[in-house]
Amino acid sequence: MQIIQSETLVSPLDTASNSSEELLHQLAAQQKSRKKWLLIQPVSNTSMMVDSGTVSMPLNLIMVATIVGTLFDVTFIDERLGDKIPEDFSGFDVIAITSRTLNASQAYRIGDRALKQGKTVILGGVHPTMLNEEASLHCTSVVYGEIESIWTELATDVLKGKMQQVYRAKELKSMSDMHRPDFSYALSSKSSKKYSSRIPLLATKGCPVGCNFCTTPTIYGKNYRYRELDLVLDEMRYHQERVGKKNVNFSFMDDNISFRPKYFMTLLEEMAKLGVHWNANISMNFLDKPEVAELAGRSGCDLLSIGFESLNPETLKTLHKGSNRLSNYEQVVSNLHKNKIAIQGYFMFGFDNDTEESFQLTYDFIMKNKIEFPVFSLVTPFPGTPYFDEMKPRIRHFDWDKYDTYHYMFEPTNMTGEKMLSNFVKLQKEVYKGGAIMQRMAGKPLNWVWLANYAMNRFTSKLTPEYYY
User: Fold this and answer.
1) Which residues form a coiled coil (predicted)?
2) Which domains are present in the chain?
3) Region of 42 on the Ramachandran plot (φ > 0 left; ψ -120 to 50 alpha; else beta)
4) What is the per-residue pLDDT across 55-74, written as a single tens digit (0 to 9) for each?
5) Which of 167, 316, 321, 342 would bridge 372 by S-S if both were Cys, CB 3.0 to 4.6 A apart?
6) Model pTM?
7) DSSP string covering 156-213, please?
8) Residue 463 burial (CB < 10 Å; 0-12/13-18/19+)?
9) For residue 271, which of 241, 305, 239, 298 has the smallest C-alpha distance?
10) Distance in angstroms (rounded) separating the CA atoms of residues 463 and 453
């Protein structure tokens, strides 16, 4: 079998000079005992259904554990599972915490406590990257973006005991050098059964589209990188052998896996030979082509998560989301459904162009096109995005615990906040009524999507506008 090699939009990074690599290994060899790292995935404090029940395996932190484990001892804690963070950090040298915005406050509390105990504290993840000056108040060092691209420098400084405030790569490392994630770090938890059975996987990084509400361009710029296809397929085979079956369920964690059609289509052709199942977030830039949906279905795709965002063309213009064309929406849905691919459709409300009609248009679209799993959110300007800078004077608060896309951030131009929230609640209740579920899911296979719908039926039946303040 001949697999095409991945193209890349960035030059491979010479991660460090030979002398830097040699210094790192010399320092590691001189250590009388390996330094001990505690890696922490914090829980969020949101009241909504974000970190409850089954949670996805934290691939990014697993990747951190894998690279850290080459030189140091690693203890891995996922607080979302109920794992307890020790009060006493005396058994560790380095406390490393990943954070997104909605759990930033918890990450900061952990960081502050570890600093008081004299530990080296490292904060990474989306939120510390976006607001590294704020994050620096709660740690020794901030990792800006991905750890792989600054690892040699960071590890050397840890061994020397002389840390920098921010570690930021001048160039991004080639994905060819990425270690295969070692899932044993996460699976060693006594509560690992709470993880989703879907195995997270990464084939690409970045998204050059540049939607103004997205954090990805801030982290990666316009870069879009690939792993060689052989590496992706080998990782799938590894997991098939690990769990002892072919029909493994994978979730691609890529920002935009379909951005380069040639790479994506070749990957799907090879996956079709493996007998796996998979799902992914995907943009609509070429899903209106029937052959793409046919190949996706043949390769084992059972669900795609699509950001429809809005049924209002003026709103889509303000988002700079060129891949979303209203005229293509129904064709995209039809193509996927013909190939038995379910749709998790994302819809956002609270834009200045929204009116009460926006809610009715969304309801009609969902019911007519039988969107299996609609997900509704409120517009949330995240720190570090152009949208945040634009909306900052109008944002009601900066309580990071409520930056979960389920809290009321600002009042839109065309309706009051109260009117917007009452319509938002009504839409969710109507879409997840028992009769509406039966209408949308008629003829669909009995699987977890049905269960998700009935969980949402119970959840939405209790909703009131007050939930969102």
Assistant:
1) none
2) 35-168 (3.40.50.280), 197-468 (3.80.30.20)
3) beta
4) 899 999 999 999 999 999 99
5) 342
6) 0.91
7) HHHHHT---SEEE-SSPPPGGGPPPP-THHHHTSTTGGGB-SSEEE-SEE--TT--TT
8) middle
9) 298
10) 15
In the block, tokens 């160039």 appear at 171
Q: Report CA dihedral (390, 43, 281, 202) to the nearest 10 degrees.
A: 110
Q: What pLDDT does residue 51 have?
A: 45
Could you report the per-residue pLDDT of 216-244, keeping only the tens digit for each? 888 887 789 999 999 999 999 999 999 99
Distance separating the N- and C-terminal Cα atoms of the chain:
56
Burial state string for 107-127 with b = 16 or more CB within 10 A and e = fewer than 16: bbebbebbbeeebbbbbbbbb
- Under the banding of pLDDT at 50, 70 and 90, the label for residue 79 is very high
- C-alpha distances (whole Å) from 252 to each of 203, 249, 445 are 7, 10, 22
8-state DSSP, 442 = T
Residue 14 banded pLDDT, cuts 50, 70, 90: very low
Give residue 3's pLDDT: 40
* Dist CA 252 CA 276 (whole Å): 12
Q: Are 42 and 153 in contact (CB under 8 A)?
A: no
d(CA 331, CA 343): 13
Burial of 355 (0-12, 13-18, 19+ CB in 10 A): middle
5-14, 173-182, 348-357: range with lowest mean pLDDT: 5-14
Both tokens of residue 326? 């209203």
CB 169 within 8 A of CB 154: no
Contact 169, 16 (CB under 8 A): no
**Dist CA 157 CA 95 (whole Å):** 15
In the block, which residue shows the tokens 């804690």?
Answer: 77
What tokens were used for 94?
């380095």
Show the tokens assigned to 354: 């929204």
